[in-house]
Amino acid sequence: MVVRGLEEYIEAFRQVIEATWDPICFIEPHPGVGHNGLTWNMGDWQQIQWEVIVEGYLGITNQLDGYLHYYGEGMDGASMRYSEPEAQATHEVCCLPRAGDSLKEMIEGRTITFPTRGLPFGEFVSFVDTWYARKPPFDYVLLRDLPYGQDLVFFRDQVCFVLRELDFGDGLKFGHAGGA
């Protein structure tokens, strides 16, 4: 579903997490503790910003009647959410190539043909050598190849974002984004 302003909301979110990265990391009480290379507080901070900026603006503009799938690792709890922790995702952000129907992914260098609904957006990442990192600059997107659950990384500028309503059970297939 094409949503007015979605790209701008997601870019605002990306700018906020990039700009606040160093100050938030500085106050992290246990910088080495976390999951997949991201400290607990940073993952929580990102989820809060996702809900406030992206989900919030979509709701305020009456373009989302429900809840977005969590960002990155989400938070502890069944729904992975900060606000309304019992709420279940009704929509997810997916990515499609800006041009054509396929893109070369960064990890294995394969050309990936995207399904018409897009591939689920996991989070913004950086790319270092042959793998991605959860730290600025957030110039790549981490997507999930369904149904295999494989991590795929693409240049951020090569994709556009679309909103997709989840079918019953879709949120369970996406799961956590893996990586370092």
- Class from secondary-structure proportions: alpha+beta
Radius of gyration: 15 Å
Low-confidence stretches: 170-180
Topology as H/E string?
A: HEEHEEEEEEEEH
Shape: globular
Would you write up a description of this structure?
- This protein has 180 residues and is α+β, with helices and mostly antiparallel strands.
- Strands 3, 6, 7, 8, 9 and 10 form a 6-stranded antiparallel sheet that branches. Strands 1-2 form a two-stranded antiparallel ribbon. Strands 4-5 form a two-stranded antiparallel ribbon.
- Helix 1 runs antiparallel to helix 2.
What's the arrangement of secondary structure elements?
Blueprint (H helix, E strand, L loop, with lengths): L5 H22 L6 E2 L2 E2 H21 L30 E7 L4 E3 L6 E3 L5 E10 L2 E3 L6 E6 L4 E6 L3 E7 L4 H5 L6
Antiparallel strand pairs: 1-2, 3-6, 3-10, 4-5, 6-7, 6-8, 8-9
List the main descriptive attributes of the protein structure presented here.
alpha+beta, 180 residues, six-stranded antiparallel beta sheet, 10 strands, 3 helices, two-stranded antiparallel sheet, disordered C terminus, globular
In short:
About 25% of the residues lie in helices and about 25% in strands. It is of the alpha+beta class.
